Amino acid sequence: MKVAVLGAGAGGAASVAELVQAGHDVHFWARSAETLEPHIKLGGVAYEGKLGEGVARPALITTDLKAAIDGVDVAVVVLPTFSHSAIASALAGAGWSSSKPVVLNPGHTGGALEFAETFSRTGRAAPPVVEFSTLTYVARKYRPDGVTVSGRAKQLKAAALKGGSEVLEIAGKLYPGLTPVADVIASDLSNVNMVLHPPAAVLAAAWVEATGGNFTFYVDAMTPGVARVMKQLDDERLAVAKAFGHDLPNLVEEMKLLGTVEADVVDTSDFRAAIAGGEANKRIKGPDSLEYRYYKEDFGHGLLPFLELAKIAGVETPVAHSLYSLAQIAVGTDYRKGGRTAEAMGIAGMSRDQVIQKVRAQ
Ligand SMILES: NC(=O)C1=CN([C@@H]2O[C@H](COP(=O)(O)OP(=O)(O)OC[C@H]3O[C@@H](n4cnc5c(N)ncnc54)[C@H](OP(=O)(O)O)[C@@H]3O)[C@@H](O)[C@H]2O)C=CC1
Ligand SMILES: CC(C)(CO)C(=O)C(=O)O
């Protein structure tokens, strides 16, 4: 397939590596010349880890969005989710067709809804949008022209707004291992980062500020108290999902499907042991400051849309509220500004049944 990969962070670089290896004709786009320059110099993306080792050479590397999407069958957005609205506007402006699929890898919580809402506000019908519940990789860019991939999701939840099974099939050809779920609310609420990051982000904020993140986030900061808060937050997530008609696995079971908790873990209620024992995440350091995406993205584009969905479903979520409020104060921000509100997702004022109807209408 002819694919535009939009984004040159760790996820975008890993995607280029996997898609080029699989024989797809890849156009690699990023907004800044500075980020792309090392890749242009190398002629591609150096990769190591779960995808093997080598240099993946896409057909085109460019900051010109029009050139990147010219003639492609599908666009894959591999960017922090706080940029989904900006990329939706940019794609609409660059002439993206309303009939060609866009894959959000990941969409996290509310990605497809926000993307479609922003695109349609430009006056054109939104294209089919497929969202993944999380990124297909655990990956970091330790060098400017390359990526280290320590995990590749085994089973990953995905759903589409418009186009249904047809566009999910296209996404599945690009990224084997997708598990289609009933609707985007089910994939929204399967976003593990929304549960995995906020408890330690808030409870270990002093540690982050004092050390610049010199501790392991999923081992050192996965203390018994953090794990207890995480478990309660996860129960709230499952309750909201249930109110929308979805029986979802708990966080540890979901991470087992992804492969970030080891397959032989039996006690899925012991969050601390299961998560700290995961090989893919084990060595990942804490955030270097309160500016890191765990503080921005997982609140403004994680817990915020979650709280909006919980409100619509009429489910109490005191732990999510507490973490959200404390993070706002600690970070000194208002997550609603530019955040994924109900309005941004195009579901403001809707009842639970109206939301279900909206996401299931093909
Ligand atoms: N990495 C991982 O292991 C995991 C990541 N995820 C999620 O996957 C997504 C991608 O993650 P990852 O690739 O690691 O993120 P990165 O932090 O590596 O991505 C940074 C890139 O995003 C670009 N960017 C930021 N804002 C915009 C914008 N408005 N328009 C265009 N480009 C933008 C930056 O561009 P520039 O260089 O110009 O600043 C930069 O190149 C995130 O949602 C993340 O939470 C989920 C699970 C695991
Ligand atoms: C470490 C990981 C992959 C957790 O699974 C993550 O969520 C991230 O870096 O954003």
Automatic annotation (TrEMBL):
Gene3D superfamilies xref list: N-(1-d-carboxylethyl)-l-norvaline Dehydrogenase, domain 2, NAD(P)-binding Rossmann-like Domain
Pathway: Cofactor biosynthesis; (R)-pantothenate biosynthesis; (R)-pantoate from 3-methyl-2-oxobutanoate: step 2/2
Domain Opine dehydrogenase span(s) in chain numbering: 181-330
InterPro entries xref list: 6-PGluconate_DH-like_C_sf, 6PGD_dom2, KPR_N, NAD(P)-bd_dom_sf, Opine/Lysopine_DH, Opine_DH
Pfam families given in the database record: ApbA (PF02558), Octopine_DH (PF02317)
Catalytic reactions of this protein: (R)-pantoate + NADP(+) = 2-dehydropantoate + NADPH + H(+)
GO molecular function, one term: opine dehydrogenase activity
Transmembrane segments: none
Keywords: Oxidoreductase, Pantothenate biosynthesis
Domain Ketopantoate reductase N-terminal: 3-92
SUPFAM superfamilies: 6-phosphogluconate dehydrogenase C-terminal domain-like, NAD(P)-binding Rossmann-fold domains
PANTHER family, sorted: BLR6086 PROTEIN, OPINE DEHYDROGENASE DOMAIN-CONTAINING PROTEIN
Name by which UniProt lists this protein: 2-dehydropantoate 2-reductase
Organism: Aminobacter niigataensis
